[in-house]
Design goal:
By secondary structure, this protein is mostly beta strands. Helix content is 11%, strand content 38%.
């Protein structure tokens, strides 16, 4: 098999019925801004999470993206949440079947997320991501306990190895953490570089195949235009995550000057500095819904909205008015009042440009823009897709 081969894995979406999207996103953002438990390519030098506060909630808050992965031989397929912000791969015990390739290491594992936790025993086993992408002797947590982990069988952690430290029993052969899925893909010559391309699509219905991962590089078929790469920002703490430098226009008006922030698959909304958020609210005429804390507009206001343009590395990525709203067929999950339309833009807080992490491009942005996370070359790639101008919402 050629190392340059790009492996594509389909996945599906699963809408989680919650009404506190904003609160959960802000709790996550608070820890990211503080520099706790970084998870970008420059975070490998951090062997311990920074002290203070709870762990970061790594899970997507409104929609989960699930990949069907096989354990053992013959493989038992399980639906795993895809997470670039954590690195352990684990599965619930009731979903896991011991086969000839399974090995119980008799070592405990335990992971506490900001939202949920799990614990059990570590196994090594064959992990099948696709027909031609199979990993041997992958470390897998088999969880006999899992808390607040509904609608999934486990997690596929594709972040850096440093995040696995202290989640398993000490191992002299792996003092800096357990080999991740990405580590083993590269170590077993399945991919040439540690790079993941993620193609989300706007949600249309539950449990539909509406996205894909490409291991080893980007999937050019997902791009509807130029794929542009930028290096990880040098501004701390955004530099410790998947950080970029970016400005934003609303229509032809710049509402956010160039500053540092991050691209984050674990955040649902688009989070902007308070002053930028207020300017956006003024431009759209939106008001704050007292139940959810989200901005809402009327149909008449929506029809007058303009596109947001995210300016990154000399390229502009358009987020249309339709992409700025929560899918209206899901308004009932947030208890949005009849006649109002919820927006996916929220405030990250009273952040100044010099604070170093001013915005988060969550998956509301990433559903309309193809994204590539290249650990080997410490860079991020964006490209428009055929869904950039979709009217799905």
């Amino acid at each position: 098999m050629s190392q340059s081969t790009i492996h594509r894995v389909e996945f599906k979406t699963n809408v989680v019925h919650i009404n506190d999207v904003k609160q959960r996103d802000l709790a996550r953002a608070k820890h990211l801004v503080a520099g706790h438990q970084p998870h970008g390519p420059n975070a490998k030098k951090h062997q311990q999470p920074k002290q203070g506060g709870d762990e970061i909630p790594v899970m997507n808050n409104g929609v989960t993206y699930l990949a069907s992965c096989g354990f053992g031989e013959p493989a038992t397929n399980c639906s795993l949440l895809i997470d670039t912000g954590s690195s352990n791969t684990w599965v619930k015990k009731e979903k896991y079947k011991v086969t000839s390739t399974s090995k119980d290491t008799r070592k405990p594992f335990s992971i506490t997320y900001g939202l949920g936790s799990c614990s059990g025993s570590e196994y090594t086993d064959r992990l099948t991501l696709s027909q031609d992408l199979v990993i041997e002797n992958q470390s897998i947590g088999v969880a006999d306990k899992s808390d607040q982990m509904p609608n999934m069988d486990g997690i596929l952690g594709v972040g850096p190895v440093a995040l696995t430290k202290n989640t398993m029993a000490p191992d002299a052969s792996n003092p800096n953490g357990i080999a991740t899925v990405m580590d083993n893909l590269k170590g077993q010559d399945k991919i040439k570089i540690e790079c993941i391309g993620i193609g989300y699509t706007p949600t249309t219905k539950l449990n539909a195949a509406t996205g894909n991962l490409s291991f080893g590089g980007p999937d050019s078929t997902q791009c509807d235009g130029k794929l542009n790469y930028v290096p990880i920002t040098s501004t701390y703490p955004a530099s410790e995550y998947w950080g970029i430098d970016q400005s934003i226009n609303y229509g032809n008006t710049e509402i956010m000057a160039k500053c540092a922030g991050i691209s984050d698959t674990g955040t649902t909304l688009i989070l902007l500095p308070q002053n930028v958020y207020e300017l956006y609210q003024q431009k759209t005429g939106a008001k704050v819904d007292q139940t959810t804390g989200l901005l809402t507009v009327t149909q008449a206001q929506y029809e007058k909205m303009e596109s947001l343009y995210f300016c990154v590395g000399g390229e502009k990525y358009e987020i249309t008015p339709n992409a700025q709203i929560w899918p209206r067929k899901e308004d009932s999950t947030l208890n949005i009042p009849s006649g109002e339309i919820a927006l996916v833009v929220a405030s990250i807080g009273d952040i100044k440009a010099g604070d170093g992490l001013c915005f988060i491009n969550g998956f509301s942005f990433l559903q309309r823009v193809y994204s590539v996370y290249d650990t080997t070359n410490a860079r991020i790639g964006y490209a428009p897709t055929k869904y950039t101008h979709a009217t799905t919402n």
